[in-house]
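Example 9 (inverse folding). The structure is encoded as follows.
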């Protein structure tokens, strides 16, 4: 007989349990990725609060994340199954934390390139901020940088335009790089 209501496994709701099972399966791959990635910048800038005069920790944020994920995996390894972890108070804590940490690491340091809008340069065809980057979808596929108007850039053209824009910003050609169109020269 089931002691728990429908949609609940131990102390976890079904969505938490499903996330935990998936994250536990992915944890080894993510730990390996974070340790091999070394020092890479995340999608967000790290928040640092200086509370002492001691020097900062000389470890990459990715290594710290890998260590934290690993510590929760080690704690969960004492349980024989995912259900056993979900039915234990300490196990459910580690399950929820593992899910939170792995999801956060995936968001900050993605393992796969994803399609995204390009917001720092306008389209050469319609002069709007409508360019999109699409990574290769399968081996042998090409990177596509295009606009809905039909304008396309090759990856080498895109890299050249990026280099020119960054050089101009560094030289101070733009008063405010966040609002000025990067394709118009402000001499």
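The amino acid assigned to each position is listed next.
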């Amino acid at each position: 007989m089931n002691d728990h209501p429908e949609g609940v496994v131990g102390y976890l709701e079904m969505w938490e349990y499903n996330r935990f099972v998936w994250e536990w399966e992915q944890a080894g791959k993510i730990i390996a990725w974070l340790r091999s990635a070394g020092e890479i910048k995340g999608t967000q800038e790290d928040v640092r609060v200086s509370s002492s005069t001691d020097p900062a920790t000389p470890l990459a944020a990715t290594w710290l994340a890998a260590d934290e994920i690993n510590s929760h995996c080690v704690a969960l390894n004492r349980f024989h199954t995912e259900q056993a972890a979900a039915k234990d108070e300490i196990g459910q804590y580690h399950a929820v934390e593992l899910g939170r940490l792995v999801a956060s690491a995936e968001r900050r340091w993605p393992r796969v390139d994803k399609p995204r809008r390009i917001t720092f340069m306008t389209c050469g065809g319609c002069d709007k901020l409508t360019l999109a980057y699409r990574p290769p979808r399968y081996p042998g596929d090409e990177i596509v940088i295009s606009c809905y108007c039909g304008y396309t850039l090759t990856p080498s053209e895109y890299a050249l335009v990026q280099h020119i824009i960054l050089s101009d910003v560094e030289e101070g050609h733009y008063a405010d790089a966040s609002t000025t169109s990067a394709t118009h020269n402000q001499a």
